[in-house]
Write the structure tokens for this entry.
Amino acid sequence: MASALRRLKWEKFRFLNNLSKRKSSCKQNHTRTICQRKTNQYVCHSQLVLCRTFHWSPVCHELVQFKLADIGEGIREVQLKEWFVKVGDHVSQFDSICEVQSDKATVTITSRYKGIISKLYYDVDDIALVSTPLVDIETDADSPGTTQSGSSSSSSEVSSSSDDEHSMQRIRGRKVLATPAVRRLAMENKIKLSDVEATGKDGRILKDDILKYIEDPSVGKQAKASAPLATPPAVTVEPSKPTPVVSTTPIQPRITLPVGKDHTEKIKGMRKAMVKTMTEANNIPTFGYDDEFDMSALVDLRSKVKAITDEKGVKFSYMPIIMKAVSMALTEFPMLNASVDKTCENITYKAVHNIGIAMDTQDGLIVPNVKNVQSLSIFELATELNRLQSLGLAGKLGTSDLSGGTFSLSNIGAIGGTYARPVILPPEVSIGALGKIQTLPRYDNHGNVVKKHIMCVSWSADHRVIEGAYMARFSNLLKSFLENPGLIMLYLR
Ligand code: CO6
């Protein structure tokens, strides 16, 4: 009976929807005829999401097309990575609907409505365009965000304000992840999801986690207290709280090729961004400059400090020290921490050092950046790097981490190379590639052959605005910092 009623309402909805569309030539009044007859209340929105209610309906259900809102950053399309709902699921406001990945970030889309999912518009891996529907939701009468038709004879339209929808989207990692059913279970048992230890993929809370918490609430809290920080602070770091230690498991091959058969696929997601950025970069007249740094003192220093940072749960590689030294050298050579406009008529010297770190991920090369390196301690840099690396490996970096870089480093030596020719990331003007620190024989000041830890560094810079000598002087200053880490202390602010 209920389904027959629903079907009847749906037929009526489609009929009125079509009628409404036929009147769409009148921008202001295209629903007026229908509405006038029923309620004398007119709501007309150019971005149309339609719903209708009928006078014989005992409960008000409205069908809402939930559209993919503008995610910003000029993103026009996204790849659908994962659905968190299926047709027939009941969702509440803020429940996760799906995860999408653009060429710049991974974003979890959450619902602004309460109701039942009646249609999914895409399959996993499909490309969804901004402003097109993701799902249809048959909203509950009390659903926030919909126009309520308490009266039996009302007729209404609901606008999908892109701003409103945008506010329901959360970058993954900053919101508790759980399916609608799990949220409901938590709600019914008056449990705060933030108190529950998540054991699901990417920190998702599972039904079992809730059940365990119901059995023994202290388990969740204790576990949480010793769990890694989800989002370490950008600037202030509490050293006592451990941060995620990153797995150094090698990235697995991305595709399995059918034997003896060519395989063609569409270039999507982050890799698509790579196509665009690197093609743009190729238009920059670039010079290269290489040198080798003696990292022996730094290798020694790091081995002493590492035990302390390990205790605090922070993985401490050479990168945080190198980044700090780079920032100190950039202070003396600000032209390298700059950007140029598309036609290269203006150069902007950046007030902050947001140093991008090239990362090799499943989805391709991405370059998240550590913000305000000039103001962070080396330990804070390590903490922040751990966070970015964890998110990068999980494919969960958000737009804010991936945008706003002012200078970049590529630690190809972490994989194994000695030299590289790094490609500038426009609109930045320079980038450095760090080779593998190798144990090699070198002469000391007395002509004796000694064991040294040598790292080759390769710089690339935009020759329209940077001269080779400027880059060489910058490199020399950095070399002096890294070869004599005591100098870093001396100049550290
Ligand atoms: N030499 C020797 N040992 C190294 C080096 C170098 N250069 N770099 C890291 N390591 C060590 C590091 O100290 C760790 O040692 P243990 O603590 O003793 O285990 C270990 O290697 C693992 O370090 P990890 O990679 O986890 O951390 P790190 O902070 O050094 O680097 C990262 C972080 C995100 C930069 C790195 O993991 C990564 O993804 N590197 C690859 C970057 C990449 O793909 N660049 C290519 C971009 S394309 O530039 C390009 C021009 C072309 C070639």
User: Anything to note?
Assistant: Confidence is low (pLDDT under 50) at residues 13-59, 147-174, 221-250. The first helix runs from residue 2 to 22.
